[in-house]
Amino acid sequence: xxxxxxxxxxxxxxxxxxxxxxxxxxxxxxxxxxxxxxxxxxxxxxxxxxxxxxxxxxxxxxxxxxxxxxxxxxxxxxxxxxxxxxxxxxxxxxxxxxxxxxxxxxxxxxxxxxxxxxxxxxxxxxxxxxxxxxxxxxxxxxxxxxxxxxxxxxxxxxxxxxxxxxxxxxxxxxxxxxxxxxxxxxxxxxxxxxxxxxxxxxxxxxxxxxxxxxxxxxxxxxxxxxxxxxxxxxxxxxxxxxxxxxxxxxxxxxxxxxxxxxxxxxxxxxxxxxxxxxxxxxxxxxxxxxxxxxxxxxxxxxxxxxxxxxxxxxxxxxxxxxxxxxxxxxxxxxxxxxxxxxxxxxxxxxxxxxxxxxxxxxxxxxxxxxxxxxxxxxxxxxxxxxxxxxxxxxxxxxxxxxxxxxxxxxxxxxxxxxxxxxxxxxxxxxxxxxxxxxxxxxxxxxxxxxxxxxxxxxxxxxxxxxxxxxxxxxxxxxxxxxxxxxxxxxxxxxxxxxxxxxxxxxxxxxxxxxxxxxxxxxxxxxxxxxxxxxxxxxxxxxxxxxxxxxxxxxxxxxxxxxxxxxx
Length: 567
Known about the structure:
alpha+beta; ibrinogen binding protein from staphylococcus aureus fold; 4 domains; 5-stranded antiparallel beta sheet
């Protein structure tokens, strides 16, 4: 469910236990997030406030985020105004997604001072606003200039005013009949089940469509009746009435693959752990953000590589076209030879073709075009020139094709690695590799918020291939080209055994023998691993090469790639 008014109230109810905590740190990891370091009763807490439109929330966090070396202006302002103050109170209103953190402390003259931090969690209009004791805006994370009557000025030195809403308060409803009448009044026609979440969310403040959807599924509601509406009303009331008690928890919603995609509040006591709702939200959004970052990161690099692949495919096409031209090379040499050997027979007059016996083909007649602008002997010379030109071109173009094919193979191996990558760290390693390649001179120009952190350390310090135990033998599997290169050329001993799918992109598999002779069953299992960690893993019959590592060679100066290491 969305971080709606009900979740906001539940989370902040737990946070009220932090009253009296002292602010000792303030961070701004990114443009949408503020983290307040708090200290209470010998325990350090980190209060995460995020106003990203997709992930807006407030919660305690245990997940550390990297911070810029130079603190942004708003972060510096909060440090100046809040560090040393104590959290006096946390205020919420109805089911509004608005929280006010009240702080109190002493200035240098020991006079009492107070500040307020207003957190508005309203999608794309979310904001964090610092107020003085007269509710004058000191500054805000986002500056907003009023554009119509539905918005307010959020600017320094202006009076803060609360956002307005034309929705009804669910908490002020008298009973179920009141709920039903307001819901019916907002609808011209009868309400369908699929329409109900939107109707309720648009009528009552602080209740999201996702929350109602979860209730409908949990209560197995299939049609709209007075009874089903009352069930929804009662369940919502039950959740709200349990806010501030231990009888409230989150349940997760999983997709067909078993991956958690959403959550909703339930009136059940799963555990009595402190701040259990906060830390559930913390883990949920951390995983969600990490997965999203992973997808964006991968897709950004994948697009870059696919664009490069397209360029090299075009280059290879042009090379093949040149090679087609070279196919006529021997024909031009033959024309030159036959004309030269038959000069005495060819009439020296204006002819555009001649028929001569081809002594390479049982003296069968062959028709040779003649350029009338030149003499017969000059036609022969021109054919030899064409032959020599195409012969030289063939040598150059053949080398170009070999190199272009290598690059294509390399790019396809990178694509395979990206498609099989599981974590941001995996993508980091791939990024580290391709950033060193001349194929991707433009990679450092890529500006994308998805790439928030990229490894800068030496690759060797982060190598982490997959490891398996096969009948008492250790087996190592590379997850990318650099790991493959490291395993095959540096990690493995000469008597270890190397496995790789034949002519198919995939991982290098190293079987550590420790001087033993592994049985055939172990070799077969290692071959199966090589097949599984390859582009052909879904095929029923995959050929796998294997040999002792001492027979594996790598061309000097070549890049770490599948195609460079060979038997």
